[in-house]
């Protein structure tokens, strides 16, 4: 297994046909701030985050996940990771070098085992950010990303072997078996989770709110605006975080959350939670019941970007 070279999740990049509608959603009611835009590509920041952007949108003929980006502590760590991936037979899209997106930095891209484009970078300039105030119901930062995989265990093993992710918890069902692995690269319960799905796709992107009041105010704002709610509000058992899931204009699931568990890595032992028990999915009992419709929406469309690097 690799040493712990990844530090945190930086951003998730989406490509969509109806770019203007998607940009209006994320820079409007969802609460992100557009910081740069250039001919069909835009960069959206969270006000409380030092990251230059947490979502990138790109106009494209087909909907796809362009890439998921992670941080490393130094250019030396970026080089070390690239060398280890090459030695492990991982296909690199680019070799380590200067990054041309806002904030610059030093990084490279490669395909994961399911064909997603992953980016790792260091030395990205810190964005001028601020403390999100009480009752201000906008995202503080990007919390985590969940990815659908047709082979849950193969994908978990790949991320453990090549990128140093650690298993935190697992969701299981008496009839379906193991269905989701929560994976971490820090003391945060998960930066990524892998869900068993029929095809490779984005499951959801999650955004951290300031606190429960701001999380509820944000959830209510979207409901009043008629944004389609998928599931919530509630509180998961794995991660102990709150959740309300909505659909963006292109059918990607996005989540408002808060209070995701910070754990002691020295003493942590992974749990297996039976999500046929209602309190596992929602400790509070306030969310609409998990059903086949929610699961189907979370599977998302087949990702058209598998083993195809995004053009930018």
TrEMBL record:
Residues 8-123, 141-259 form the VOC domain. Coiled coil: none annotated. It comes from the Bacteria. InterPro entries: Glyas_Bleomycin-R_OHBP_Dase (IPR029068), Glyas_Fos-R_dOase_dom (IPR004360), GlyoxalaseI/FosfomycinResist (IPR050383), VOC_core (IPR037523). Gene3D superfamilies: 2,3-Dihydroxybiphenyl 1,2-Dioxygenase, domain 1. PROSITE patterns: VOC. Pfam families: Glyoxalase. This is Catechol 2,3-dioxygenase-like lactoylglutathione lyase family enzyme. It comes from Streptomyces rishiriensis.
